UniProtKB/TrEMBL annotation:
Source organism: Teichococcus wenyumeiae
Designated name of the protein: Indole-3-glycerol phosphate synthase
PROSITE patterns: IGPS
Pathway(s): Amino-acid biosynthesis; L-tryptophan biosynthesis; L-tryptophan from chorismate: step 4/5
Any one Gene Ontology BP term: L-tryptophan biosynthetic process
Length: 268
């Protein structure tokens, strides 16, 4: 298998994440984090929420809550996760995605907890998952779904992380960027296949990535188009190739009327 060519930024993020997990897991050992996770409230049905949207002929919008990004800088200030979550819910979003990485996205576990408490939508923890400890941590902070970036994981790692998530009744969004990663993702059990339009080396977005890959996603899986969607025309472009679920963040968060912007995506 050829290793993906990652950007220097992503390589730094993954190295820093390994150090972060070592530090945090030393403070709260794995067995204790697992106990906390299994004692947490039952997760909301993330996959079901998207399935329901598609079954009803709607766009399944995973609306993102994030303050900043390495490529976009500060995106929204003031940043109020609870308010953002309520506005997304009012617009008809199916799910939320909340960034929890601090060094590169100015995220925090508290952002996820605040957003989830403010609405009834299932929530994806958007972070760089590399260790089972993080999956248990995700459940303790209220996450209903985790993201697995195939480019950052071996098949053994991806399977292990998915197994932990499934044992907690959590959903998994497997993110791919090319044909080889798609083939690997289809070896997992999850129905949710994220097609990221952002090139891992240049960090530029191109909707042609999803147009190329979505037709190869089997009918029993749910393709989710990620990155680069900026208007209803882009949403229709993705729907035309079979991706009726989308993940949108930066475009929405830069709009003064968040509810109207999100509704336009849902009703595209």
């Amino acid at each position: 298998m050829n290793a993906p060519v990652l950007s220097d930024t992503l390589l730094r993020i993954l190295a820093d994440k390994e150090a972060e997990v070592r530090t945090r897991s030393a403070a709260t050992p794995l067995d204790e984090m697992e106990r906390l996770a299994r004692d947490a409230d039952k997760p909301r049905d993330f996959t079901g929420a998207l399935c329901n949207a598609v079954a009803e002929g709607r766009i399944g919008l995973i609306a993102e809550v994030k303050r900043a990004s390495p490529s976009g800088g500060l995106i929204r200030d003031p940043f109020e996760p609870a308010t953002i979550a309520r506005e997304y819910e009012a617009a008809g979003a199916s799910c939320l995605s909340v960034l929890t990485d601090a060094p590169y996205f100015q995220g925090a576990p508290e952002h996820l907890a605040e957003a989830r408490k403010a609405c009834k939508l299932p929530v994806l923890r958007k972070d760089f998952m590399i260790d089972p400890w993080q999956v248990f941590e995700s459940r303790t902070m209220g996450a209903d779904c985790i993201l697995l970036i195939l480019a950052a994981l071996s098949d053994a790692q991806a399977n292990e992380l998915e197994d932990v998530a499934r044992s907690l009744d959590m959903s998994v969004l497997a993110e791919v960027h090319d044909e080889r990663e798609l083939e690997r993702a289809l070896g997992l059990n999850t129905r949710l296949i994220g097609i990221n339009n952002r090139n891992l080396r240049s960090l530029r977005t191109d909707l042609a990535t999803a147009e190329r890959l979505v037709p190869s996603v089997p009918a029993d899986r749910i393709p989710v188009a990620e990155s680069g969607l900026r208007n209803p025309e882009d949403v229709r472009r993705m729907a035309n190739v079979g991706a009726r679920c989308i993940l949108v963040g930066e475009h929405l968060l830069r709009q003064p009327d968040l509810t109207a912007a999100a509704r336009a995506m849902v009703e595209a």
